[in-house]
Design goal:
By secondary structure, the protein is α+β, with helices and mostly antiparallel strands. It is built from 1 helix and 8 strands; from the N terminus they run E-E-E-E-E-E-H-E-E. It has 3 domains: 48 residues, no CATH class; 41 residues, no CATH class; 70 residues.
Length: 226
C-alpha cells in the first residue's frame, strides 16, 4: 500500500519599514557691513549647508535559514484518517531572506539671496567709500600734527643741548631731526683778503706803529753808580 506525504506550504513573512529623512535649509539674514557714521550696507548672501545622512536596519537574532517541517500525511489502511496526524517526517532548510540594510547619503544644499533695489546698494557703497576717505584724511591730519609737534619739540631741546642717550630706546624719537648750526653745518665759503704788494714786495702784515700794539709803552732809565 502506498503512502501519501505532503509538505506544508511555506508561510511567507514580510516586514518593512519606511524612514523619512528631510534636509532643512535655514535662510540666514543678509551679510551686513558697517563702515561707521551709521552707514550699513547689505550684500548678497549665499548659504551652503553640507549634510551626511545614514541609516542601518537589522534583525536580531540573525537567522539565515529556518527548518520547514514536512508532516506525515499517510493513510496506510485507507480508512480516511491519517495514521500519524501531526507527525513530522523531516524538515527542509529554507532561507529566511533576512539581511541587514545600510543607507548613506551625502550632499549639500545651497541658497542665494540678493537685494532687489540696486540703486540703494550703489548709494550705500558710495557713502561707505566717502566715509572711508574721510577717516583716512583724518588719520593723515593727526599724523601730520604729531610729526610737526615732534619736530618742534626735538628741535628746541637740541638747541638747548638736551637729547636722549644714544643707547636709550627713545633716542630714535628725535634721530631724524636736524637743526642747522647745531646738528648740521651748512656748506659755506670763507673769503680770505688778498695781500697788497708794493714794488713787487708784499707788504708786511706786521704794523710798525706803537699805537697798534695796544697800551702806550713805558721806558725806565737805568741808574749807574758813580
Amino acid at each position: 500500500m502506498g503512502g501519501v506525504s505532503a509538505t506544508a506550504a511555506p508561510v511567507a513573512n514580510s516586514s518593512g519599514s519606511v524612514t523619512n529623512q528631510a534636509i532643512q535649509v535655514l535662510q540666514g539674514p543678509y551679510i551686513t557691513n558697517t563702515y561707521g557714521g551709521g552707514i550699513q550696507c547689505q550684500g548678497p548672501t549665499m548659504n551652503i549647508t553640507p549634510y551626511v545622512t545614514g541609516s542601518v536596519s537589522k534583525q536580531l537574532p540573525y537567522e539565515p535559514y529556518y527548518n520547514d517541517p514536512v508532516y506525515d500525511m499517510r493513510d496506510l489502511n485507507e480508512d480516511g484518517s491519517l495514521d500519524n496526524p501531526g507527525g513530522i517526517l523531516y524538515t527542509v532548510p529554507t532561507r529566511t531572506g533576512q539581511k541587514d540594510n545600510y543607507n548613506l547619503g551625502v550632499g549639500f544644499s545651497m541658497t542665494w539671496s540678493r537685494p532687489l533695489d540696486q540703486k540703494l546698494q550703489d548709494q550705500c557703497k558710495e557713502a561707505a567709500a566717502a566715509n572711508i576717505d574721510l577717516m583716512k584724511q583724518t588719520t593723515a591730519n593727526k599724523r601730520l600734527d604729531f610729526e610737526i609737534a615732534r619736530l618742534k619739540n626735538c628741535g628746541e631741546l637740541m638747541k638747548q643741548g638736551i637729547s636722549f642717550h644714544p643707547r636709550s630706546p627713545y633716542y630714535k624719537v628725535c634721530a631724524d631731526v636736524v637743526v642747522n648750526n647745531v646738528t648740521y653745518i651748512k656748506p659755506h665759503v670763507h673769503s680770505i683778503p688778498s695781500v697788497s704788494r708794493q714794488n713787487g714786495v708784499p707788504e708786511s702784515p706786521v704794523s710798525s706803529r706803537a699805537e697798534d700794539l695796544g697800551a702806550p709803552l713805558q721806558t725806565k732809565q737805568e741808574q749807574t753808580s758813580p
